[in-house]
Amino acid sequence: MAETNNLIAGATGDWEIVLGLEVHAQVASTAKLFSGAATEFGAEPNSQVSLVDAAMPGMLPVINWFCVEQAVRTGLGLKAQINNY
Amino acid sequence: MADLTELNLAEARDGLAKKEFSAVELTEAHMARVSASSALNAYVLETPEKALEMAAESDKKIAAGEARPLEGLPIGVKDLFCTKGVRTTACSNILGDFTPPYESTVTQNLWGDGAVMLGKLNNDEFAMGSSNETSRFGPVVNPWKANGTELVPGGSSGGSSAAVAARLGIAATATDTGGSIRQPAAFTGTVGLKPTYGRCSRWGIVAFASSLDQAGPITHTVRDAAMMLTSMASFDKRDTTSIERDVPDYEAALTGDIKGLRVGIPQEYRVDNMPAEIENLWQQGIDWLKAAGAEIVDVSLPHTKYALPAYYIIAPAEASSNLARYDGVRYGARQNGVDIDDMYAQTRAAGFGDEVKRRVMIGTYALSAGYYDAYYVKALQVRRLIAEDFTKAYQKCDVLLTPTTPSAAFPIGKNVEDPLEMYLNDVFTVTVNLAGLPGISVPAGLDSDGLPLGLQLIGKAFGEEELLRTAGVLEEAAGFDAQPQDWWSA
Amino acid sequence: MSVDENMVRRIANLARIGVSDDDVPGLAKELSAILGFVEQLSELDTDGVKPLTSAVEDKIRGRDDVVTDGGYAEDVLANAPEKDDEYFAVPKVVE
Questions:
Q1: Are A60 and B237 in contact (CB under 8 A)?
Q2: How confident is the model at residue A1 (pLDDT cuts 50, 70, 90)?
Q3: Percent of chain C's residues with pLDDT above 90
Q4: C-alpha to C-alpha distances, B359 to B91, B244, B303, nearest whole angstrom
Q5: What is the pTM of this model?
Q6: Chain A interface, mutation test: which of B82, B104, B244, most A Cβ atoms within 10 Å?
Q7: B131 assigned to active site
Q8: Domain-embedded: residue B338
Q9: Above 80 in pLDDT, residue B373?
Q10: What is the pLDDT of residue C1?
Q11: Is residue B102 part of a domain?
């Protein structure tokens, strides 16, 4: 069986191609991470912005557990280490 | 009709129930006094129309036999609480004429119980200060005077304490992050209560240091403080640090019986150069409680002296995060810039006062790469040691008794040039915020200049009933009935 | 810990607070004094002590993934220093 390698001969020598993928993925949730406002695409400007999202004085974030679950699920799928805190 | 502004909350509630006067009359009496007292600079915004509207509504409720717990009682609101449709500034230029389209949970609770809003009260900018000298609206003047000098009312809730002491509102809302309710109460001869962290919701209160901030009342008496707390406290889903726990009728806890209660005296609170008058008052407090049947226990809180430095890392660090939102984009006063970064820099440079800038910068430094472990994490470790000191002490006692402040009210302008000197005002109060415990200041006596001094009681987490009961006994024994001489009325 | 003028400018930049050249020396002095004060904490041995972030050590509360907020752009924009219909207007963000 012929030996294969990943090298391509170039003008100055052998080159190996390495491809990296930078993936930006958004958690597919119905409501936002820190507020109960919607995440639906295409709504009117600022109509899915809550007082918390607008960082009004005195507003406090409340985390969306589903987003946390999805993030953990993704981490497990990538065989990553999940930190407890 | 006697001067209606001489009444405390319980007396006014009684008078209204007996139809001795109407809610409108009670509010009008206070409004008149507020209008005549601008020399104190306690109010930054008066809301006369709203007050009369609310008072009229209260009269209807009383007539229909539907009086709620605080029906018709006129109070002032610290300008840190967002009030719907009413300008809220945290006494900072950066908020401009911000008018919130929402009401803070604590003030909503008060209006829901029938209280009447007289207006917004002055405070140190973003609650950062111990003298109410950093406000955009200028300093508040303490109604108490000594040797003709104008004194500070304490801070950051200086407007609240001055207003109650000068009878410009029967009670006031305030907030306490390092002592900002208790210290001003001590400086003005009023009662100031900081509940357990998580007892009152922080939703809608302009945040300074989120793990330390807590709302509470400033009042004439311990009973009034109990009445206010019963209304202010609630469980709020919108605040994840709000504790789900029933709110008892705190007034019912004022039985006057503390026989067998163990009162701890922490030795580390006896600081160097402690004025003899404060030392004596503390001893006096010990004697009063002993006479009432309490058992006095010496305890140790070994890490006390590290509380102030830990606080001055934690609070600024949290503030640097909480104040990042003030950028001129969505609300408040904006300075134009050539691009967005320039707009941020100009807006914040113009909008924040010097003390706020100092604290935001200290906080930014403490959280920055390379310094985070040495400063912020270290301070949080010290915080645990301080909290554990209290846990251990509470194995031997039920409440702690200490002085509230290391001195009486000082002259306006005395400490503005020296931030560190100013910070020392909080030495007896800061530990309580770090540990999240409830604390109350009760006026206990006058110093040789005739200025009020307070004694502080510290309770167990959610031990407000025991705390208030003890405070009531202390108040009774002290019999403090001095009032400031009116020099400020126009 | 002493904070020099370069550090002041760096912190001011991180905090997005504009400082003039005149401000810098005074700030360096004040910040150094405060940091000098908090330096005392290094006297304490805190090995193995778990940091305490909050007096409340309960499990944090959260929300379910349902829409319960939003839909009031008017309120959100009510205090805008500058707006363009339903947008917040700001100076240019990208070159």
A1: no
A2: very low
A3: 83
A4: 16, 32, 23
A5: 0.95
A6: B82
A7: no
A8: no
A9: yes
A10: 65
A11: yes
Shortest distance, CA A35 to any CA of chain B (angstroms): 10
Q: Domain with B194 in it: what CATH number?
A: 3.90.1300.10
Domain span at residue B24?
8-259+467-478
Span B245-273, average pLDDT: 96
Is 70 exceeded by the pLDDT of residue B403? yes
Yes or no, beta carbons of C17 and B349 under 8 Å apart: yes
Confidence bin at A3 (pLDDT 50/70/90): low
- Residue B101 maps to a domain: yes
DSSP state of B411: B
- C5-43 adopts what CATH topology? Histone, subunit A (1.10.20)
The ipTM of this complex is 0.95
Compute the CA torsion angle B332, B152, B43, B105 (nearest 10 deg): 70
C67 contacts chain B (CB < 8 A): no
**Integer Cα distance of B78 and B483 in angstroms:** 22
Contact assignment for B365 to C7 by CB distance below 8 Å: yes
Helix (H) or strand (E) holding B17: helix B9-17
What's the gap in Å between the CA of B444 and the closest CA on chain C? 29
Residue A2 pLDDT > 60: no
Q: Do B365 and C91 touch (CB under 8 A)?
A: no
Q: Is the pLDDT of residue C17 over 50?
A: yes
Q: Which chains touch C (3 or more CB pairs under 8 A)?
A: A, B
Catalytic residue status for B92: no
Q: Where are the domains of chain A?
A: 25-85
Which residues in B216-234 are b (16+ Cβ under 10 Å) and which e?
Answer: bbbbbbbbbbbbbbbbbbb
Q: Is a pLDDT exceeding 90 seen at residue A53?
A: yes
* Nearest CB to A56; choose among B100, B202, B238: B100
